[in-house]
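Weekend entry, working from home. Most of the wet-lab plans are on hold until the incubator is repaired, so I used the time to fold the two sequences that have been sitting in the queue since the last round of cloning. Logging both here for the record. First:
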Amino acid sequence: MTTLKELAKLLNISVSTVSKALNDSHEISEVTKRRVNELADKLNYKPNRIAQQLKSNRTKTIGVILPTVTNPFFAEVLHGIETSATKHKYDIIVCLSDESLTKERRSIELLSNGSVDGFIIAVARESQVEEETAHINSAINNKIPVLMFDRVVNEILCDKVVVDDFQSVYEATEYLIEKEKRKHILLVSNIEELSVGKLRIKGYQKAIEDSDLKPNILKLSKVDDVEKHIHDYLKNNPETDAIVSIDHVTGIIAINMAKKIGKNIPKDLSVIGFGYEHTQLLSSPKISIVHQKAYEIGEMSIKLLIDNLMSEAHEIKTIVVPSKLKLAESTK
């Protein structure tokens, strides 16, 4: 195995210069960095990670705890996290809470033994519902930086990366009212008990209130047969002329159920859901969405956490990644 000393000897420079060049130090010229990295690649040099960790007291590893990866939003955020971490020469360890408080707590306890330098977390459903987040505060109290994204706990003092949940749903509902002249707009949700769900519902309610309309909310998080529930509602409430879905699933289900009872979309019924570009490929007609920019959320989460790790006096921040209403075939 090639060593730093061998690289230094072949390049006729000091071991310290080689080390700094490999770590992209500002003290080393770009020409020298290029020479060192080219030779290191050619000789397949691999740094001794254990020695590096002992010297710097850092693992260059970040723990990522997600509720699930079957939700395309979290999968795309993870893609952004992994890509950006690699660019910054960090590794990640991914744990899935499966929406469980117990699994989330165990993951944090397991990785807080020196395995990671910090955490990126989207809080599990059970943790939010039961308002139990002492395990996250415990990591922070042990000087392990934590960043929350999407599902956050406002009472915890840490960096956060979020979507403008209230405003995005307000604007989607306002579009249906102002541009399409819809009067009977239904909100459907399977995340109403989560922080993001609560904000999105408030955005819908505010837009409805500002237009002197009547709110109609279908809460589905505790419903076993979501398809039947939406189907029956639409059948029993034929005046419904628009749907705002505040999650990644119920909007697509609503399109399918509306078609099943003979509704023409968007002539009879407009539908707006949440998602990202590929979400629009999952329904026919293609669903209009509030685009959450999941990949960018992942990139920003890594950047902000690494800024915290590298700073001696880090200022806690909440960064709002603006979403965008992307219209497709399910709206006029």
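Second, folded right after the first finished:
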Amino acid sequence: MADVLSQKEIDALLGALSSGEVSAEEIKQEEETKKVRIYSFKRPSKFSKEQMRTLDMIHEGFARTIGTNLSARTRALTSITIASIDQMTFEEFTRSMANPTILAVFSADTLPSNSIFEVNLKVAYVIVEKLLGGPGSAVKKIRTPTDIEMAIIKREMLTMLDILKDAWVNVIGFIPHLETLETNPQFVQIVPPNEMVILITFNVVISGIEGFMNLCLTSSMLEPVLPKLTASSWFTSGKEELSEMDVKRNKEVLKEISVPVKVEIGSIRLTFSEILSLNVGDVIRLDRKAKSSIDVKIGTKVKFKARPGTVGMKKAIVITEPVEESELIFTSSERRS
């Protein structure tokens, strides 16, 4: 019986008690019976629940940053979330991988051993196609990537490892090094088969195509940082300010994000009856003079003043001056009055 019952299970249990199928004494005797928890010596639990939760928090931010980066680079809506986080033996991890697949074996300068970052070829081909200007459609048949495709994938893997470094900066600083890029799981025997590893699976959706990425962190690599994988140390170190490199990277990402730009000629308040009586050919007098500047909105905020005009056969504007925050507040209050 589960520790917490659903409402449906509670109703079924009450119904069984009422009909006499189950007696209260039997339930009491079952609870008093000594419970035995199965423990596998082949798969020992090396990491505590708190350490697993901390790893989940670290890589949740890692997934969001990769999603933002890929959205900007591929110009396609990308969503990356953690699907699961589990501990298993390295042999079980290698058996679960497809062949072929993208396997990036990487090391860290301040940590021992290597780890693996796997990207499913279904996702890798969509990324490559979008970067090359294609529609990013799903591949019908999985094949081994060409040398050109591997070169593009290698560049993207280096970017992802750089983002992984930033995700871990609150726990430990390290510089990742891409040791090798393989497609066959048999060529990545980096630790003994029975060594415990942390497997973090990410669900990836890009241009409507769904796939997976796996991050395999070996226990020998995580051994030096295990005492730091606690919620208290994570939140304490998380209060540090962003480095100049982080600020620069965020600015570069923001440069690729599209924002709506609107031009507002003017406005006026009308009653509902006046709106209902409007007809074709009616002239509406706005709150501005014909030669006055118009507002340029970035998103929902007025950021510039402009003058309307034309370029060829199209309407255009000329930016005349930026709008200061204080001026914006004064103008808004002036209009309300």
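Plan for Monday: verify the second prediction. The longest helix spans residues 49-74.
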